[in-house]
Amino acid sequence: MSIANTDEKLLKALATGLVVRPRATLKELAEAAGVSKATLHRLYGTRDNLVDMLMCHTSKVMAQIIEEADLQTAEPVVALRMLIDGHLAHRELMLFLMFMYRPDSLDWVEEGSPWKSLVDALDAFFLRGQQLGAFRVDVGAPVLTDLLGALIWGMVDSERLGRAAPARSATVLEQMFLYGATPRVV
């Protein structure tokens, strides 16, 4: 990734700050992230610019997660696991995206939108997984994309609220996605 580790940490801290205190000023966000207001102002200028930068960064991180999961050739369950792990490694950005989401806020279907290309890649992955017999076929691939996103967002929010243990999140997500809430016979 082109963003340095310290910049990634700052962006995650700022994303968390916006989630925890949605109406926070730049000064309050700077304090929460451990930088000066002057630094934050120099880097982003305005709060709106910061939000735009975080949205752009989040879409790039999600694209990287999808690329690293090798959705076009990896065994589907392995790729699913990589998708889950990748998203959980950036849980702060997933929370930010969840808290910023409004039905009109992301161009999910606009041609040329970074979000559309990500959704298309996931839809194609789930269709390939269905064709290989790894995922159920009675639920459309686009719905599987949406369900995985909802499960990830729900788990990350449950962690934030102290209702889920982060150490087990990946396993729980994978099991819930693949098998639902039905008890498994071992």
UniProtKB/TrEMBL annotation:
Domain spans labelled HTH tetR-type: 4-62
Highest rank taxon of the organism: Bacteria
Keywords for this protein: DNA-binding, Transcription, Transcription regulation
Protein name, UniProt field: TetR/AcrR family transcriptional regulator
Record-linked Gene3D superfamilies: Tetracycline Repressor, domain 2
UniProt xrefs under InterPro entries: Homeodomain-like_sf, HTH-type_TetR-like_transc_reg, HTH_TetR, Tet_transcr_reg_TetR-rel_C_sf
DNA-binding region: 25-44
